[in-house]
Amino acid sequence: MAExxxxxxxxxxxDERFDEARVADYLRDELPGGDQPLSVRQFGGxxxxxxxxxxxxxxxxxxxxxxxxxxLGPVAPGSHDMTREYRALSKLWQGFAKAPRxxxxxxxxxxxxxxxxVMERRxxxxxxxxxPASFGGGEDAxxxxxxxxxxxxxxxxxxxxxPEPIGLGGIGKPEGFLQRQVNGWAGRYERARTEDIPIxxxxxxxxxxxxxxxxxxxxxxxxxxxxxxxxxxDDPGDCVAVYDWDMCTLGDPxxxxxxxxxxxxxxxxxxxxxxxMPTHAPGFMNRTEAAARYGEVSGRDLSTLDYYIVFGTFxxxxxxxxxxxxxxxxxxQDERFAGMAxxxxxxxxxxxxxxx
Length: 356
Fold this sequence. Notes:
The protein has helices at residues 20-27, 82-89, 141-159, 177-192, 198-209, 253-262, 287-298, 305-328, 340-353, and strands at 9-10, 38-43, 50-56, 63-69, 102-106, 116-120, 218-220, 229-232, 235-242, 249-251. The longest helix is centred in the last third of the chain and has 24 residues, at 305-328. It is built from nine helices and ten strands. α4 runs parallel beside α8 (305-328), α5 (198-209) crosses α8 (305-328) and α5 crosses α9. The strands form three sheets. A six-stranded antiparallel sheet has the order 1-2-3-4-6-5. It has a two-stranded antiparallel ribbon with strand order 7-10.
């Protein structure tokens, strides 16, 4: 029997609850339907920002929204930025229909302990490692191919969006973007260290010493992955939403491509541990095919792409290390995070192996 995907929502985890009555009172006059009784569930996937389903009313008459807030505990400067995500999503939908529209931003941390925003609810299927039975359970090569293709094609589509007409021309500083990113992720690693990892230091130094020249800037998502997308319930090749926009900016588009290809694990790669990309499923494009597809659709020169894949792999290692650091420091009690130090080490090793 094929493994079943996890349910979309769960009861709110004990340490991640908030005062629902205060939130209901705050949103009552801010959202259509917000004057109805509120019930809250939590989206159980993901490992960073916390995401909740808000349902005002009951049954077919209910109105649904999604609330987003940063993770518990201290966060890295510039990351988990709810104001930035709200700014992006309040405008991006005008030029990129796959971005859910944001409606309300609350920067008053006294309400739930952190800034948050509320956006529209999109209905679709988020694939996190397990391909659902409705798409063939991983055995349908055509469905698997479509899933892999939609990741690349929608990224190329997004990179083609002109930020100026939709009011996002000033969302970032593209000049020197790549160098700032590399330095920033190196600093995040330092702040999240729980032990010495010599290979991580080696990769960090290599990234700083081998910066390529960036192509012309585009809008960036900065965490592009299959599990940050939702596809139509009846078509794995039809993207209905892209999520997690808290690092949206203007910069080097190959950083987005390197991020997703960094977790595009081919059979011959060193094991990465748990991955949200079912890249071993029959028919799923391999990493070389995916890169070629992006180059074909976007028309961009990919001669320096290997660097960005190393950087993308390093970034994912740092993300896992940051999550483990929060667990080790007692900032979250989510037991899913207990083993992430080992996953981070494997990714640092993989990043080293991928250097050209």
